[in-house]
Amino acid sequence: MSTVQAITSLEAWSQHLSSLPPTTLLIISFHAPWAAPCAQMATVLSTLASEFPVTEPLSTSWVSIDAEELSDISETYNVTAVPFLVLVRDGQVLETVSGSSAVKVRNAIESHAKQTASSGLAQQGQTTNGTNGDAAVVDSKNGEAATEDPEKNKEDLFKRLGDLVKAAPVMLFMKGTPNEPKCGFSRQMVAILRENAVKYGFFNILADDEVRQGLKEFADWPTYPQLWVDGELVGGLDIVKEELASNAEFFKPYSIKASGDAAAAS
Question: Do 155 and 73 belong together in one domain?
Fold first, then answer.
């Protein structure tokens, strides 16, 4: 039976890719150790992998990658959330699944595992997104069909936003990414979090206009960046600066130095 192999270095990743026949369906699971839904997804994928025998040539290959530790690989596949699944054949992305929906993951894998290499390539670029457990790194909801009921759409969006703001104890909704902020305020917020060794998740609101607009109403806060702590809105850059001015240990409970954790979410 197949198993999920952990890829822990760029060298190991390159070696693995070069070893695969062009017909192999590569199942890549991106995760982050701090995101609870990823543990659930790891169990789902381990169970699914066990249902696929090891064949010659290899029909499926299952790997897991820490989206933050190997950010170069994450960027290659436009990883926007954890857990985040990418299905690849012969170097071509067939489908992505964002979120922790076991049903969507199973359906995607089984669908492409049954296809030949040529039919699989014809599906390049198809995207499926879930709403359970979406978290930063960041999240995207590309191509998901909307219902015709505006109230239902809003209800679904607010549920999604409620999950997103709780995706990590400290969540930053910003323009761009920590490595490439797209506005000065976001850049300053990232600098503050790093100066205080805060372990945080982030969401690039430029990657998803639905979230960008919806979070303004959900939070009753019209601008970005927005910082959320334990699912509650702290505010923008000025508010965060005021909090630190009045309480220098505001971020202490979320500091890597305080927890002894070695790796930041950024």
Answer: no
- In a shared domain, residues 162 and 102: no
145 in any annotated domain: no
Q: What contacts 83, CB < 8 A, 6 or more positions away?
A: 29, 30, 31, 35, 37, 38, 40, 41, 98, 99, 100, 133
Residue 265 lies in a domain: no
Q: How far apart are CA 235 and CA 78, in angstroms?
A: 28
Interstrand relation of 226-229 and 232-235 (parallel, antiparallel or unpaired):
antiparallel
Candidates 241, 138, 134; CA nearest to 185 is: 241
Residue at 169 is within a domain: yes
**Domain interval for residue 80:** 4-129
pTM (2 d.p.): 0.49
Angle, in degrees to the nearest 10, between helices 36-49 and 102-113:
30
pLDDT digits (tens, 9 = 90+) for 4-18: 999 999 999 999 999
Q: Give yes or no for a contact between 126 and 94, defined as CB atoms under 8 angstroms apart.
A: yes
In the chain, the number of structural domains is 2
